[in-house]
Amino acid sequence: MGRGKVQLKRIEDKISRQVTFSKRKGGLMKKANELAVLCDVEVALLIFSDRGRLYEFCSTERMNLAECTDLQTSGNPLQMIQRHLDTQNIELKNMTELTQLEKEMDAILRQIRFRKTQLMMDAAKAVHEEASHRHPKPWTS
């Protein structure tokens, strides 16, 4: 006997939501790996948490390993923001300056997310093109 159908709606309890996110993220990454292995396909997975943390999965069997490691070592967005904040003296800022700094940090985080997404899409496109060159579609008449 299978499980009942889960109603999809936002989990209101913050702790339960975080636990569910962690479990489902792990399951999704496992499924991505299984898909890559079983079907011999390239899989790139990006997950952004509600706190802006980026989780990545690259199937590196045939994907260019350098592209995946570039994405993984380009830095956690929160670490980059922390480095920027270290150059600022936050204790001396007033509410207006802190609000402006927060807006700047949000803009930086959006740029980082966008760039990382671009890199992942470029890597996926390159793999797709490489695969289509290896296995061209048969001619149809």
Automatic annotation (TrEMBL):
Please provide, in alphabetical order, the Gene Ontology terms of the cellular component aspect for this entry: nucleus
What is the annotated localization of this protein?
Nucleus
Q: Which UniProt keywords apply?
A: DNA-binding, Nucleus, Transcription, Transcription regulation
> Residue ranges of the MADS-box domain?
1-61
Q: Does the keyword NADP apply?
A: no
Coarsely, its chief localization is nucleus
Quick check: keyword Ribonucleoprotein in the entry?
Answer: no
- What are the GO MF terms of this UniProt record? DNA-binding transcription factor activity; protein dimerization activity; RNA polymerase II transcription regulatory region sequence-specific DNA binding
- Give the InterPro entries listed for this entry: MADS-box/MEF2_TF, MEF2-like_N, TF_Kbox, TF_MADSbox, TF_MADSbox_sf
Q: Name one GO biological process term.
A: positive regulation of transcription by RNA polymerase II
Q: Which PANTHER family match?
A: SERUM RESPONSE FACTOR HOMOLOG
The name on file for this protein is MADS-box domain-containing protein
Query: What organism, scientifically named, is this protein from?
Result: Carpinus fangiana
